[in-house]
Amino acid sequence: MSANPAIIVSDIVNRFGAQTVHDGLDMQVERGEIFGIVGGSGSGKSVLLNTILGLRRPQRGRVELSGVDVTTLSDAELRNLKMTYGVTFQAGALFSSLTVLQNVQLPMLEHLDISARALEELALLKVRLVGLPTEAASKYPSQLSGGMIKRAALARALALDPQLLFLDEPTSGLDPISAAAFDELLVGLQQELGLTVVMITHDLDTIFRTCNRVGVIVDRKMISGSLEQITDNPHPWIREYFHGARASRFGVSRGA
Amino acid sequence: MPFRTERHQETLRLSLFGDWTIQHVGDIERSLESLALDHIRRLQLDLSGISSLDLSGAWLIHDLQVRIAANRSVELASPEPPMLRLVAQTLAEDESTGSRAQRPRRSAIEHLGRHALERLTGWAEGLAFLGVTVIRFMAALKDPRVWRPISIARHVYDTGLTAIPIVALIAFLIAVIIAYMGAEQLQRFGADIFVVDLVTVGVLRELGVLLTAIIVAGRSGSAFAAEIGAMKLNQEIDALKATGVEPVEVLVLPRWIGLVIALPLLTVIADAVGVVGGALLCHLLLEMPFVQYFQRVDESIAAWTFWVGVIKAPVFAVLIAAAGTYRGMQVRGSSRELGRLTTVAVVQAIFMVILADALFAVLFMEIGI
To answer: Which one in A236, A245, B47, B262 has a CA-CA gap of 20 to 30 Å to A117?
Structure first.
């Protein structure tokens, strides 16, 4: 492990009323890796993501993004922090009244002072970068297919050239071919742009194709490690997840 | 400045340094504008001094290469950074897939034709919706099991009971306004007593039902459109159809029937509050005893005065419910459509109510009531 991790989450506690979602959860993401977060429905994957993004203050614990503790930042500092990462949401969350190009331009308009030509060209570059045709730039989200929405959301997340990228179920709802194409795009961009990627996913295909390391949320804590370490983990939920009927077709059981 | 320039006759050497990243794109753009390129034939770019480069910075360099290369030779005096190659590759693919899509320009006549056709199909769709609803209603008349009493009761509650406070308040205020204005004018002729006629006939025949309908159009017409529209966006309407349940039967009819029950009742309340409000103001303003006021009310109203108002209520209710549910069903695609069609529903409901009221006025005059 390097001396300078991109994300350090230490001893997080998140509670909703009497229900404790995270109880002393730790997580560390190194620079330049793709880190997958896995967990059952209701295990608090999205809550963890919101905590890391600084959208939710945990009851206890620290979250450091590039050495900055996001849990103690003021609103103005948080605003600056938000320029340094990109996020995509489960259903895309594209603004439905804006075209794809305008969706990508929105963060730039908010945070940058650049010429109209640069705004247009840079946004179009991002649209092209995620593999969308130029014609798609002038379309509205309701006119796009599921795969194109995910790509457009990725283009918007990359609008401000972030070093950190958070993806919430980027391939859910896609057919296997589109999902594979998205994974390929993600790995390519991650290498070319030197991104650090944190991704929540249920898709075993995606995990095996893209992730360097995986963190599993079980019993309100996180167990993380390389793919081999996790698939060899004896915890019953992890065993069921990676070696159950759905997983056996990947042949991961062989090594275990 | 994020670059240094050295000039040797017709050659300009640009040495870039510092951060060429997205935060600095605006500043770099502005300083590049001041670049003097007269009589320059050759341009050398030295990128070795750049401390950090991201995609946007690379785009600036690419843009520099492409724009200046138009009539000059451009060369890199240092190794090409991978980020710059990525930009060049991404944009190169662009040219092979064709240029930016442009919306074809339409002539005025084509525009007019398309608009007319859209209007026509719009009318046809509206008529079809009305037809389906009426057919379902007829079927429901024959088969009482299709009636959904709980659903209807909910809509009577939502559109009627919860609207009582605002309807009563508005009716009271309108009666006060009429009485006040009437008293001002009629006092001059010593015809104070006719203020009672003005308030009673005005509220009972026209204003009670009209204002109630307008309030309900704003409250419930919009709610109908928004509820059904959101269900449409959420694919709940498709789910209903797939379950073998007819959306018109469970979503549209109960709302129509509920409102047809609720609006006349609200009108009666508005009428009552209006007449009482008039009594209060006549007492305060003209020192008219309550007994005298209500005696005059009794004399001023004909057998039909009250019914002329109330009879309009079910018709207005159908118009409001039709506009709300129909526009809700039309929502598709995006939340923007939901907002637009909710607005359309309210505006159309109010318009149709006022139009229908005008037609009723002519009708009642013709038949002499």
So the answer is: B47
Q: Domain containing A118: what range?
A: 94-161
Q: For chain A, say whether B63 makes contact (Cβ under 8 Å).
A: yes
pLDDT, mean of residues B229-256: 88
- Domain enclosing residue B253, as ranges: 122-367
Domain count, chain A: 1
Task: Give pLDDT tens digits for A5-49.
Answer: 899 998 899 988 888 889 989 999 999 899 999 988 888 888 899
Do B20 and B61 fall within a single domain?
yes
B92 and A CB contact within 8 Å = no
SS3 assignment, position B206: helix
State whether the Cα torsion B57-B58-B59-B65 is positive or negative: positive
Is the confidence at residue A195, as pLDDT, over 70? yes
**Mean pLDDT of the A73-84 span:** 83
CATH of residue B57: 3.30.750.24
- Out of A115, A128, A161, closest to residue B90 by CB: A128
Which chain A residues have any C-beta within 8 angstroms of a chain B C-beta?
Answer: 83, 96-97, 112-115, 118, 121-122, 124-126, 128-129, 133-135, 137-138, 140-142, 158, 160-161, 192-193
Rounded alpha-carbon distances, angstroms, from residue B36 to B41, B43, B44, B63, B67: 12, 12, 14, 17, 14
The predicted pLDDT at position A245 comes to 63
Give one word for B3, left, alpha or beta, with left for phi > 0 and alpha for psi -120 to 50: beta
Residues B242 and B302 in one domain: yes
The answer to whether B293 and B283 are in contact (CB under 8 A) is yes
Average pLDDT over residues B119-127: 91
Q: H or E segment at A20?
A: strand A19-29
pLDDT for the residue A254: 45
Render pLDDT for B248-292 as a digit per residue (tens, 0 to 9). 888 999 999 999 999 999 999 999 999 999 999 889 888 889 999
Residues B33 and B143 in one domain: no
